[in-house]
Amino acid sequence: MMISKKSRAVFLTAVASGTMLNPLNSSMISLALHSIQHEFHLSFTTVSWLISSFYLASAVAQPVTGKLGDLIGRKRLFLFGLILVAVSAIGAPFAPTFMTLLVMRLFQSVGSSAIYPSGVGLIRNHIHERQASALAVLSIFASAMTALGPTVGGFLIVWGGWPAIFIVNLPFIILSFLLGIYMFPKDQKKGAGIKTIIRQLDILGIVLFAGGIIFLLSFLLSFSSSPHAAEGVLGVLLLGAFVWHELKTDKPFIDVRLFKTQRNLSAVYVQFILLNVFFYCLFFGLPSYFQDEMHLSVQTSGLFMLFMSGMSIVVSPITGKWIDRSGVVKPIFAGALLMTVGAVILTLFFINVQTIGKGFILSLLGVGYGLGNVALQAAMLKTSPSNMVGTTSGLFQTCRYLGSILSSVILGLLFGKEITAAHFDMMGTIMIITGGASLLMAVRFAALMKTAS
User: Fold this and answer.
1) Would you say 204 and 245 are in contact if contact means Cβ atoms under 8 Å apart?
2) Of 286, 309, 306, which Cα lies nearest the Cα of 296?
3) Rounded CA gap, 391 and 384, in Å?
């Protein structure tokens, strides 16, 4: 069933108001950690698990719930994800212990993770005209929530304490749920029983994948203190066992042969990891540099960051229209080129230029992010087999979390003890290398797409 032009905006509002919950809650928690730490009398290391566990659970849950959506229907899973987030929004403010709060946070992570692949699948199935522009709407909402989450969280905490950052989800959940029930076409697949679903799922593959990802990402997160080498080795072994199992089983969770047969999709995943390494270095690193080395206030640092996040929001719908007219190859190349050029200018000139020059450089980088984010999302959808959109969309988001965690490792190694201009230059050099690698991958992707056509 296709969505009519008249109902398109309402349909996209239903999807976007749900998919925005994951980026909103991943960033909004940052300003609440201090209050939660003191209320439950915890160390910062312990309370920071509210962030780490969210990333880890999301990285695993996105492809797993995507696979479930492919099996049982995307509308059902989208609405179920909203219900899980609602449970956390209601339960978290009344959590008697930190462990209860952590469980509520995991409900929030898994629920919001189920929504994104289901939402992308719904767009793939029911919006066929100007599909890239529709995906740009999701990118705008996600970029805005990631950028504004800490600011929104700050106001909410002043107003209602840390519980307010959970309660604020309820209006968006209700809006998305009611519009979704009305607007989303009924799933073609009938609801399968538990036994049928279990038979269709590759349970061992999911367990090996989840264990490998959790241990590998936990190893990467440990770099900021002392690396847990055993976790890294175990993660690699489990992922190796996962690949071996997937090649042998009849109904794989993720058909790893896909990465060989669909090399254009594999190229998209690699580029998306590079994109997120690049820009999360900026998102996480620049505010610290502004405040510690340049001695700027929190408010001024936030305004500087708006140059970048604001431009990425502005350029997203323009990118969607460009893709609808010309395809994904040129926008992907343009985004990678702006990444590389922006990194060179940032490294050479950012420290010494006046305020307006800093704003221009950050705006240039924001344009590159907006182009890459929308174009790679559209390319992922274009290169995915139609029966695996949920799974491939989930893996796409896992690449985002992998990129963000790798950026945390880089910044931990660079800024772990102190933040100086020399460390900033080293970060710039790493970003130039990352941008150059993305540019090479963009050229390779263009060649693969030409061959495929």
Assistant:
1) yes
2) 286
3) 9
Q: Are 316 and 136 in contact (CB under 8 A)?
A: yes
| Four-residue CA torsion sign, 397, 306, 363, 328 | positive
Residue 198 to residue 393: CA distance in whole angstroms = 21
**What's the length of the chain?**
453
Looking at residue 188, the DSSP 8-state letter turns out to be S
Task: State pTM to two decimals.
Answer: 0.79
Q: What angle do CA 216, 217, 220 make, to 5 degrees?
A: 95
Most confident of 33-37, 104-108, 282-286, 407-411: 104-108
Radius of gyration for the alpha carbons in the chain, expressed in angstroms and rounded: 21
| Full 3-state SS string of 326-341 | HCCHHHHHHHHHHHHH
Nearest of 187, 160, 135 to residue 15 by alpha carbon: 135
33 to 38, 48, 55, 58, 87: CA distances (angstroms): 9, 7, 15, 19, 21
Collapsed DSSP state (helix, strand, coil) of residue 253: coil
Under a CB-based contact definition with an 8 Å cutoff, are residues 308 and 284 in contact? no
- Check if the beta carbon of residue 298 is closer than 8 Å to that of residue 334: no
Cβ pair 220, 405 in contact under 8 A = yes
Whether residue 440 contacts residue 280, with contact meaning beta carbons closer than 8 Å, is answered with no
pLDDT per position as a tens digit, 105-151 = 999 999 999 998 898 888 888 887 887 888 878 877 877 777 677 66
